[in-house]
């Protein structure tokens, strides 16, 4: 399964294959059962995850006790909640496995040692973070300017198959709408088929 990570990393660097293989071999693979909390709101995050198989939900609980979904991470995506400038800052989010998952688990405390050993990693990680930030900005813009139906259609286009893997209330929360509204949107779109 580590070949999936190897191919993913090759998209962000032209480092020699041997160096990339060394990096990949140092990252442990772990299996997690559906429902496992990888991170709890209020904890200090020290891990990052690369999804080989499965699905992770990022969410927070607001002051009224409501769960608010802010992201989903599926195959070939990185889930990391940390700020390198504030390493002891508590997370505002939970990370939970929505499916049985196989993840590569990186330790953020080892990051500087890895950068020293493999200088290309710092540039590669920066490129990955820039892409992640651009996607987050696009998703936020969609949330602000698109109608609920257009947000749902955009999700179906950008993340094929995700809607079938996620509970409707979690998907509605991610889209910024009520579950009943999502049901109406789905019914309307199905009637047009």
UniProtKB/TrEMBL annotation:
Database matches in InterPro entries: cNMP-bd_dom, cNMP-bd_dom_sf, RmlC-like_jellyroll
Q: Which Pfam families match?
A: cNMP_binding
PROSITE patterns linked: CNMP_BINDING_3
Q: Which Gene3D superfamilies match?
A: Jelly Rolls
Q: Which residues form the Cyclic nucleotide-binding domain?
A: 11-57
Q: What is this protein called?
A: Cyclic nucleotide-binding domain-containing protein
